[in-house]
Amino acid sequence: MLAFLSLAVGTLISEDLTCISAGVLIQRGAIDPFTAIVACGLGILVGDVGLWAVGRIFGQAALTWPWVARHLGRGGVEQLRVWLQEHAAWAILGSRFLPGTRLPLYVVAGVVRMPCAAFTLWASVAALLWTPFLVLATANFGDAVVTRLSGAIGATWLPSLLVGAFGVTVATLARSLRHRTIG
């Protein structure tokens, strides 16, 4: 039970590192695969819905900030809502596999008031695809995965890269909406 809770909570700090750790634990016989995958998957889903909730709760206030209002333009939130309604499945599934895209997309889904049930459905499907893949790949190829990733995981440039990816994603969404409004 302690391993289950540790993995589930660990995903709230770093999903991928926790899944990799779960795979290593499986490889070393410290936890069974089913428990590891369920713990990581549940933790990931709770974190995903939490990001959606942050957008839902605080998003309307953020929309009044001058920088946000200026970059979204008039009608930007509505256009973003329509786009997300039309592309929710692929956007949420794709974001699970594209680093730096989950946080902005999931928060925006809350801001534009995407229904919680629809968001949770697609976030669940994405987690069901991603989590077993990463955990079991690490369990099967653990030493090779850990060796290859250990240099990048501890590097000081990784946080900068993630912040940069977040900024690029937000700027791209804002620019796309602005061009749709103008065009």
Number of H/I helices: 8
Low-confidence stretches: 155-163
Task: Estimate the mean pLDDT confidence.
Answer: 80
Beta-sheet strand percentage?
under 5%
Structural class: mainly alpha
Number of domains: 1
Shape label: elongated
Alpha carbon gap, first and last residue: 56 Å
CA radius of gyration:
18 Å
Note the main sheet.
Answer: none
Give the ordered list of helices and strands. Answer: HHHHHHHH
**How many strands?**
0
User: Roughly what percent helix?
Assistant: over 70%
Helices and strands in order, then pairings?
Elements: H1 2-10, H2 15-27, H3 33-62, H4 66-72, H5 76-97, H6 102-111, H7 116-153, H8 157-182
Helix pairs in contact: 1-3, 2-3, 2-7, 3-6, 3-7, 5-6, 5-7, 5-8
Can you describe what's shown?
With 183 residues, the protein is an all-alpha fold. The chain has one domain. The protein contains eight helices and no strands. The chain is elongated, with a radius of gyration of 18 Å.
Quick overview of this protein structure:
By secondary structure, this protein is an all-alpha fold. It is 85% helix and 0% strand. The protein has one domain.
Which properties best describe this structure?
183 residues, mainly alpha, 8 helices
